[in-house]
Structure formats: C-alpha cells, structure tokens
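Reminder to self: tokens first, then the designed residues, so the page reads top to bottom the way the pipeline ran.
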C-alpha cells in the first residue's frame, strides 16, 4: 500500500515535492495539497488529480493523508509542525526548521514527546558532490579550515520581501544550508562566530553575510551567502594536513590535491535531491528508524543563525552556545 502524503505550501518549491512524490518515489503518492492562493491551489490540484484544502487543518486531518510535508515560509513552521506532531502523522519539515530559536527549542521538546519524530529536509546532504566529499574527507588528515559560499540571484519570492511575513534573510533562509554542511562533513558543532550582514538589494532583510566561525575541534570555518548577484555559485573548500579539496556543488566537479598529486572527480550535481529525501523519509517511516536529519540537526542550524544575528548586532565574536 502506498504511503499517502499531503503537501502544505504547494508553491514553487512545494510543487516539486508533489511532482517527485507522484512520479519518482516508489511506494509513495500524493493525495492532497494546500496553497493559500485558492485559485492557484485548485488549479494545481486539478492538474495532478488530487484534493485541494483551503486550510492546513483540513489537510492534516484528512483521513487519506498518512504523512505531511511542510514547505511554507518559516514563520509558519512552528505552528504547522506542532499541529502535525499532535496528529500523530509523520512530518517532513523544510528547512529552516523554524523562524525563531525559541520556536526551535520548543519544537525539539514536542518532538521528543511524539511517537513519530520529524525529519528535517536539508537536501544538500543528498547532493552527489557533497556525498563524494564526505567519502574523501578522511584523506585530508586533520582539517583546519573549511570555506563555504553560496552566491545566488536576488529572490523573486514576494514573502521574502514582506516585513510582515519573513523572519530573516540570507542568514536564516540560506545560511542554514552551509551551517548544516559544515556539521555534516566535519561531525562537529559550532562554538563561536563573528558575523556581519548587509542589505544590498533586498529592502527588508539582509541579502549578504560573511562570518568566521570555529567548530568544537578547532576547525576554522569561513561562511558567505550573497543573494544580490546576477550569477550563481556554490563552493566548498576544505584544507587538511594531508591535502585539500575544492568542490563545486552547483555545477559539479571535485579536485583533491595531496602533495604534487591532483585527482579530479567528474561528478554532476544535477541529480534532483528531493526524490532521495522523500525515499529516505519513507524508509524511516516504514522501518521506525531515526530520520537521517533530526530535530537536533535543525535546532543546531537555528541556534547558529540566531548567533550570527547576535554577533552582527554586537559587532564582535560571540559563543554560539547550546553544546
């Protein structure tokens, strides 16, 4: 029997979940969606032959929905996630886990009380380039420096330029990707951060931030998100005592240098990650095993985002806390 899901927030990104769950994940189907713009929501539901719910509560309580995907703006994540957890249905929650640290801490408490722990969607963990870098990580020896940068075009999403709806900019909405990657690859937690932010083109929130951070084993991390350029790039570098890695996780390709030797890995980054996320969520639901990305992971990224904002306000390095 197929695992039937409902998608809350079937906008540009949410529609990808609908499409992949219907076409690319054996054992999974979609029975319902919710989108706040009723005309667009009904049109999309008709297109895919599924039901439309005008309100999240109707979808969550739908007896033909076995599990729920939440991919609404992060300001709504806490209340929607709480409602899904209370229903007892499995939850796949898009990053960032919540908009505020206090909400993330409360959601972590609720998750421990739930018979079905939530899974957080951090899709870069399934990026083929990132997975290969993780395989090669031990060849670097002791790593002392990681650099992560994501450079993207200005957002076209209205809610990210609406002061009544967005609760953060590049730090929260995109920074959580690279915060999670640093943890995922190193296996360590953030200890300190010195962050600065700037509004370049976005009239409401920061669209440029730089940070220097340290991890629990002393690794120094350089972090950048630029969302003001008419171009795209996603770069990763790691420098260890035995070698260094340079990786492009947008267009693909990895270079590993050790001594005078250089090895290139022609790995594409074009593989869609959402089907892989959905497959692993389905496996965790069916096996009753811990999800591959947990509420603890989500809490760590929100704690780091909150620390970046505090550091920028104080204009100094601060402790991240929470270890």
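Designed residues (323 positions):
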């Amino acid at each position: 029997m197929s695992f039937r899901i409902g998608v809350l927030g079937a906008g540009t990104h949410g529609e990808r979940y609908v499409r992949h769950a219907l076409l690319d994940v054996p054992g999974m189907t979609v029975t319902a969606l919710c989108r706040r713009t009723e005309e667009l929501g009904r049109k999309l539901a008709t297109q895919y032959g599924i039901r439309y719910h005008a309100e999240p509560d109707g979808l969550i309580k739908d007896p033909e929905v076995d599990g729920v995907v939440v991919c609404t703006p992060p300001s709504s994540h806490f209340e929607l996630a709480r409602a899904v957890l209370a229903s007892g249905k499995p939850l796949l929650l898009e990053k960032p886990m919540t908009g505020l640290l206090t909400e993330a801490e409360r959601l972590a408490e609720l998750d421990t009380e739930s018979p079905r722990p939530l899974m957080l969607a951090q899709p870069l963990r399934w990026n083929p380039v990132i997975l290969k870098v993780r395989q090669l990580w031990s060849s670097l020896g002791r790593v002392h420096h990681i650099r992560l940068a994501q450079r993207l075009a200005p957002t076209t999403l209205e809610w990210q330029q609406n002061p009544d709806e967005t609760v953060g900019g590049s730090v929260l909405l995109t920074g959580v990707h690279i915060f999670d990657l640093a943890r995922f690859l190193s296996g360590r937690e953030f200890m300190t951060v010195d962050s600065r932010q700037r509004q370049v083109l976005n009239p409401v929130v920061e669209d440029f931030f730089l940070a220097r951070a340290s991890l629990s084993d002393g690794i120094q991390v350089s972090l950048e998100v630029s969302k003001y350029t008419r171009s795209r790039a996603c770069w990763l570098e790691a420098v260890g005592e035995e070698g260094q890695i340079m990786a492009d996780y947008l267009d693909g390709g990895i270079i590993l240098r050790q001594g005078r030797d250089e090895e290139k890995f022609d790995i594409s980054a074009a593989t869609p990650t959402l089907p892989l996320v959905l497959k692993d969520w389905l496996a965790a639901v069916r096996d009753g095993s811990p999800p591959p990305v947990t509420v603890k992971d989500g809490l760590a990224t929100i704690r780091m985002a909150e620390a970046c904002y505090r550091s920028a306000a104080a204009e100094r390095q601060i402790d991240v806390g929470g270890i």
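Residues 23 and 29 are 8 Å apart (CA to CA).
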